[in-house]
């Protein structure tokens, strides 16, 4: 079974631009979560989608948004990029039993200049 | 407000000895905890988990202990091997699928 894939792996943007990151979950997994990892804040939960609906949301500004498609693939979008948005963005999928482990992708490294 | 804390940013252990990684939490509503391991340029990999109705869970060389009254959990790795060198994250499950992570502890196993 293929693992969680994320594209692109690396991205460089400038302040004010917007960016879209993509995540393909493990086949059969319907829950997709997004996390931001920074040296200062560690791993922080952004949001979780299940069956095309946002089910859970972290404490991030509205510039961070996401969506999920009918095939469970998910995208997250960050608008009006700020320098502080530079981070590793991780996507995780699970089969949605309440306590199932989440399987993480390799992440997208976003650098904002 | 850091609800899950790993107070040791790094730990160095001799190969073959026991590695003990610690984690504290503040939210008594957490009822499921997980440990993840992360290598550079890779996403975190699930290691082991424990429900709050248990105080110990074992999987091969990895054992997680939970002390609910102290709001403390620990991961024991024995014997430690060079391939265990990585960053270890403690996480608590808050609601369906929302993981709250600690800051991580970098474990180095010395030959």
Which helices and strands, and how do they pair?
The complex is a heterodimer of chains A (113) and B (111).
Chain A: E1 5-7, E2 10-13, E3 19-24, E4 31-38, E5 42-50, E6 53-57, E7 64-68, E8 74-78, E9 87-94, E10 103-104, E11 108-112
Parallel strand pairs in A: 2-11
Antiparallel strand pairs in A: 1-3, 3-8, 4-5, 4-9, 5-6, 7-8, 9-10, 9-11
Chain B: E1 4-5, E2 10-14, E3 19-25, E4 32-38, E5 45-51, E6 56-59, E7 62-67, E8 72-77, E9 86-93, E10 99-101, E11 105-110
Parallel strand pairs in B: 2-11
Antiparallel strand pairs in B: 1-3, 3-8, 4-5, 4-9, 6-7, 7-8, 9-10, 9-11
Provide a short characterization of the protein structure.
Chain A is mostly beta strands. Chain A has no helices and 11 strands.
Task: Please tell me about this protein's structure.
The complex is a heterodimer of chains A (113) and B (111). By secondary structure, chain A is an all-beta fold. Chain A has strands at 5-7, 10-13, 19-24, 31-38, 42-50, 53-57, 64-68, 74-78, 87-94, 103-104, 108-112. In chain A, the strands form 2 sheets. In chain A, strands 2, 4, 5, 6, 9, 10 and 11 form a 7-stranded mixed β-sheet that branches. In chain A, strand 4 and strand 5 form a beta hairpin. Helix content of chain B is 0%, strand content 55%. Chain B has strands at residues 4-5, 10-14, 19-25, 32-38, 45-51, 56-59, 62-67, 72-77, 86-93, 99-101, 105-110. In chain B, the strands form 2 sheets. In chain B, strands 2, 4, 5, 9, 10 and 11 form a 6-stranded mixed β-sheet that branches. Chain B has a 5-stranded antiparallel β-sheet with strand order 1-3-8-7-6, with no helix packed on it. Chain B is globular. Chain A binds chain B through residues 4, 31, 33, 35, 42-45, 48, 50, 55-56, 58, 90, 92, 94, 96, 98-99, 101-107, and chain B through 32, 34, 36, 41-46, 49, 51, 89, 91, 93, 95-104.
């Amino acid at each position: 079974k293929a693992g969680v894939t994320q594209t692109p792996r690396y991205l460089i943007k400038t302040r004010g631009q917007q960016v879209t990151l993509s995540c393909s979950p493990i086949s059969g997994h319907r829950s997709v979560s997004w996390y931001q990892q920074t040296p200062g804040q560690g791993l922080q939960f952004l949001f979780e989608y299940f069956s095309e609906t946002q089910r859970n949301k972290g404490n991030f500004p509205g510039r961070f948004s996401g969506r999920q498609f009918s095939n469970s693939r998910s995208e997250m979008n960050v608008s009006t990029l700020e320098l502080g948005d530079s981070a590793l963005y991780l996507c995780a999928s699970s089969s949605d039993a309440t306590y199932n482990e989440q399987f993480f992708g390799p992440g997208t490294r976003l650098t904002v200049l | 407000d850091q609800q899950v804390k790993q107070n040791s940013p790094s730990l160095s252990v001799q190969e073959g000895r026991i590695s003990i990684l610690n984690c504290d939490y503040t939210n008594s509503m957490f009822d499921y905890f997980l440990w993840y391991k992360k290598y550079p340029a890779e996403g975190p990999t699930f290691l082991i988990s424990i429900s709050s109705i248990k105080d110990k869970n074992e999987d091969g060389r990895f054992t997680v202990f939970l002390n609910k009254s102290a709001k403390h959990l620990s991961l024991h790795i024995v014997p430690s091997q060079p391939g265990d060198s990585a960053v270890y994250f403690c996480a608590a499950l808050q609601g369906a699928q929302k993981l709250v992570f600690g800051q991580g502890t970098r474990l180095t196993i010395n030959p």
